[in-house]
Input
Amino acid sequence: MFDRFDRDIHYLRISVTNRCNLRCSYCVPDDFVEPAGHCHDELDVATIEKVARAAADIGINKVRLTGGEPLVRRDIVDIVQKIGAVPGITELGITTNAIFMPRYAAGLRKGGLRSCNISLDTLDPELYHKLSRNGRLEDALSGIEAAEQQGFAIKINMVVFNETSDKEIQLMNEYCLDHGFQLQLINHYDLHQHKMDNYTFSRPPKCLECNRIRLLADGSLKPCLHSNDEIALDPDDIRGSLERTVMAKPRIGQACTNRSLFEIGG
Output
């Protein structure tokens, strides 16, 4: 389906949860406290499947599951199986910190998942712990190994900060080359600041190249990452909700001040 600016919107990112086992400094606000019963606000598997089917009907063929951390959902394999069986969905991937991947990798692969974008900002254990606030690099690397053993196409998402050294990038590039992974460098950005379109690296993408919409964990549809605009998912007209979201995409993103990054999935 094409939007008002003749962009082919064929990519749906589904944030299946806002929960995460890490509290990365650039993603989760310092003062965030997860509310009790938080998981009960998440869309159920049946609704997610209905959205995927409606999305395929309007020409979307690529779906990526995000969070929070999608692997904190105990029904994540069920979600993958349902979406993987939808005719027309030809690309199904996940963005994860990989820590729970040893538990789920085989089931995800069998269910139809084909690619993993794995967040890994450094190979320095101390810096990893600092950035994630509570994570262990060895757990992430074990998860990556589990994904590798299942034959997933793997991209490493490395957020680059002003203080990130060329040496750190070089080491990550060598790690990816050694394992046959693709390295994706992502400029650190702030949703609350005006969207830039002249980043050094390929992510975030330029607005005029944007091909995606987002379904958030609470059922809101977001036409643009860098915008406060949201459309409520109508359970009686899911296709119409998706179509309205595509047509609501702005030409250029501005800023998002009503959500934090972990609520959107990047």
Remarks:
- The chain is about 30% helix and 15% strand.
- The longest strand covers residues 153-160.
- The mean pLDDT is 94.
